[in-house]
């Protein structure tokens, strides 16, 4: 049994991703479970999720003093994405997973339910892009996050259904076929509810929008209610060039962080995004952001993508 186990994960802060090392120490003393390393409330609550998930997966939770460190400690950790790496590190430190089964090039991301099933999380796409840049060989993610992860080539992605399945995989009792992303290929023709061709009349406005689309200019439409401003604006993306792979990845990454990607066959953002804010929307709500200070205080709120980003 290892006294200290280490596995790798990542922290998604806004649109930036940072490597995180999850360390678990099993020591002598009264049974306890503490998490350090600037965690937020969701991570603090993961103690109960991890404990129940391990027990309900037919595994043994160590009845000793457990200390979990999320390094580096100066970066705020937020959300339930650390449930899976914490559980793996606990099982690794307790000897229930062989230390040779988990390599230094493995990355774990995922939220655990009390039954041990993995639930999808936001920000998978930027996390996988960063993992590839760091030289990761394998990344273990929730099964329901698989579609958006297929955008990244040359990385072995393991879709995991439950903690029990993952442990069986490490014990060579279950085979999980890795998925290698295909990139942005075979994009079907985009079917949109609004099309620029649907607008009848308004020739001057359509001419202005065509010039704006051709030259990437700003344009201001002004007129009485019902004159077609919104319909013209909604149809504008249909006369613009299709998004290339870099633009699709960038748009999909932003929507992934914001939790706006559909988890299914249509995980990609292939159409140029359109946003129609209400006229009473404040400038702060439109621009987005938050109080993310240099000292990374525990009460700071991470920047959230605003309308310009989406």
Automatic annotation (TrEMBL):
What residues form the membrane-spanning segments? none
Q: What's the domain of life for this entry?
A: Bacteria
Q: Which SUPFAM superfamilies match?
A: P-loop containing nucleoside triphosphate hydrolases (SSF52540), Ribosomal protein S5 domain 2-like (SSF54211)
Q: Name one GO molecular function term.
A: ATP binding
Q: Which organism is it from?
A: Candidatus Berkelbacteria bacterium Athens1014_28
What Gene3D superfamilies does the database record attribute to this sequence? 3.30.230.10, P-loop containing nucleotide triphosphate hydrolases (3.40.50.300)
Q: Report domain Magnesium chelatase ChlI-like catalytic positions.
A: 195-291
Name assigned to this protein: Magnesium chelatase family protein
């Amino acid at each position: 049994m290892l006294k200290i186990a280490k596995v790798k994960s990542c922290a998604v802060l806004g649109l930036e991703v940072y490597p995180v090392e999850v360390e678990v120490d099993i020591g002598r003393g009264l049974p306890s479970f503490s998490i350090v390393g600037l965690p937020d409330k969701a991570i603090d609550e993961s103690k109960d999720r991890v404990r129940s998930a391990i027990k309900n997966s037919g595994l043994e939770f160590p009845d000793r003093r457990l200390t979990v460190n999320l390094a580096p400690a100066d970066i705020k950790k937020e959300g339930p994405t650390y449930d899976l790496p914490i559980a793996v590190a606990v099982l690794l430190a307790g000897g229930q997973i062989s230390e040779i089964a988990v390599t230094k090039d493995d990355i774990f991301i995922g939220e655990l339910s009390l039954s041990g099933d993995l639930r999808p999380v936001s920000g998978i796409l930027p996390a996988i892009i960063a993992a590839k840049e760091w030289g990761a060989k394998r990344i273990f993610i929730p099964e329901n996050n698989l579609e958006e992860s297929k955008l990244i080539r040359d990385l072995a992605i393991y879709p995991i259904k439950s903690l029990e399945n993952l442990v069986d995989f490490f014990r060579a009792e279950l085979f999980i076929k890795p998925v290698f992303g295909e990139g942005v290929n075979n994009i079907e023709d985009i079917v949109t509810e609004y099309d620029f061709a649907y607008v009848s009349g308004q020739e001057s406005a359509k001419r202005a929008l065509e010039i704006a689309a051709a030259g990437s200019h700003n344009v201001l439409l002004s007129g009485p209610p019902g004159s077609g401003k919104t319909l013209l604006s909604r149809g504008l993306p249909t006369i613009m060039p299709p998004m290339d792979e870099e633009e699709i990845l960038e748009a999909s990454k932003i929507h992934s962080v914001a939790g706006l990607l559909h988890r299914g066959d249509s995980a990609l953002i292939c159409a140029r995004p359109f946003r129609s804010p209400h006229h009473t929307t404040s400038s702060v709500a439109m621009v987005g952001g938050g109080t993310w200070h240099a000292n990374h205080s525990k009460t700071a709120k991470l920047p959230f993508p605003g309308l310009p980003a989406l």
